[in-house]
Write a structure and sequence with these properties.
The chain is an alpha/beta fold. The chain has helices at residues 16-29, 80-99, 116-122, 136-144, 148-172, 181-190, 231-251, 266-274, 287-293, 307-316, 345-357, 359-376, 379-389, and strands spanning 3-10, 33-40, 55-60, 104-107, 127-132, 175-178, 198-200, 221-225, 256-260, 278-281, 296-299, 321-324, 340-342. The protein contains 13 helices and 13 strands. α8 links the parallel β9 and β10. α7 (231-251) packs across α11. The longest helix is centred in the middle third of the chain and has 25 residues, at 148-172. The chain is elongated.
């Protein structure tokens, strides 16, 4: 008989990459559990309608302040709206727990740290599973640079409170899934007594979604592959066009630059109108085709773009990747073997030029990257690991 799981998630409260990770976990866990998905969703959404007979969808209409206890700006008061939304979710959790005997509860990254005390009280015998990506400190640090003199002390205090809340999270959870070896070590260092609960579940992709039977002819093209709807994403495009792209065009005059995204900042659109070699395609469903056609994929130089999933997509489509050390820090990769890593804008341009001018090099790097993906980041392997843990 299949066990029953309560799955807590929040739509539009996290990045596209984190949301895709949560949905992938849901697909994996449906292999073993009948799931009640309780989702925060500010508006109408039919993503999981008729998704699976084993899935029952419940929604709370108001938005919640994500990761309320783990990331709380100290220079702002929590709004009444967030308070009301949390109250609404508590009522839904209590109702579902009174109706069903859950053996497991999954708390997604978007709600990390929220309501874990309530669930522990209502379901003392249930195994609580949390997907914990340690991005809090970086986010706080980036916010602190805006008004550094004012926020410096707030940042230090907030970091201490984050560590306190993460220790509490580790004591309450039965299984903590970290996104990388670095995150796992960071959590284990917080509490050696609970270190055994921490397991690494890296970013992963379903290779079946990237299988093509028709051959592809590589063009003299490069693709910018990151979240274009964020401020950081827009700034990265502007940096690329100002400092990197001119160096590439000087060596490869007929190069084409593809930007594929569902939401593109007006300043990025203006670039495409002023430069005919820059093509913006506002249809994300075509991203895979442009990755296949390009000789190189450039992934975001800075934080905040969830670049690991973007890199894996390029690997799955056998296109070489150029990125920064930080962009690939959580992946099993080696410069010159299955990826090209750049520490400066000049190095980024040089690597892109190499791939445009040397198709053999790009093919060799892409083939090694594909084998790395199959061995470490393919969904079936990750699925087997997750199901063995729960």
């Amino acid at each position: 008989m299949r066990e029953r799981m309560l799955f807590l998630s929040a739509h539009n409260q996290c990045s596209e990459g984190a949301e895709l990770r949560t949905e992938s976990f849901l697909v994996i866990l449906l292999e073993k559990f009948d799931i009640d998905l309780l989702e925060y969703c500010p508006g109408a959404r039919e993503r999981f309608a008729n998704f699976s007979p084993a899935l029952t969808l419940h929604r709370a209409g108001k938005a919640v302040d994500p990761r309320r206890t783990l990331l709380r700006p100290l220079d702002r008061l929590r709004s009444q709206t967030s308070h009301d939304a949390g109250k609404e979710l508590r009522m839904e959790i209590k109702k579902l727990c009174s109706q069903h005997a859950y053996s497991h509860v999954f708390i997604s990254h978007s709600l990390l740290g929220n309501f874990i005390d309530l669930i522990s009280t209502l379901l003392p015998g249930a195994v609580i599973v949390t997907d914990a990506q340690r991005t809090v400190s970086r986010t706080v640090e980036r916010e602190g640079t805006v008004q550094r003199k004012i926020r410096h002390h707030y940042r230090k205090i907030n970091e201490a409170r984050v560590r306190h809340d993460e220790r509490k999270l580790m004591s309450k959870t039965g299984l903590l899934l970290a996104a990388s070896e670095w995150d796992a070590l960071s959590f284990k260092a917080l509490s050696f007594a609970n270190a055994g609960k921490v397991h690494v579940v890296p970013p992963f992709v379903n290779l079946q979604e990237y299988q093509y039977t028709d051959p592809v002819c590589k063009e003299n093209g490069i693709m910018l592959h990151w979240d274009m709807h964020t401020v950081q994403g827009k700034n990265a495009v502007m940096l690329f066009h100002k400092k990197i792209y001119p160096l590439i065009r000087a060596e490869v005059p007929d190069v084409q630059c593809y930007i594929v995204s569902s939401a593109v900042h007006p300043e990025v659109l203006a670039l495409s109108r002023a430069d005919s070699s820059v093509k913006v395609i506002e249809e994300p469903g075509q991203a895979a085709e442009y990755i296949r056609r390009s000789k190189a994929v450039l992934v975001y130089l800075r934080e905040g773009s969830h670049s690991q999933k973007k890199i894996l997509e390029a690997w799955a489509l056998r296109t070489p990747v150029v990125t920064s050390l930080r962009g690939a820090e959580a992946l099993n990769c080696e410069h010159g073997r299955n990826i090209l890593l750049a520490g400066t804008t000049v190095a980024m341009a040089e690597h892109a030029i190499k791939l445009l001018q040397s198709p053999e090099l790009g093919s060799l790097i892409a083939d090694r990257a594909y084998r790395t993906l199959v061995n470490h980041y393919e969904m079936k392997k990750v699925q087997a690991k997750v199901l063995s843990l729960v």
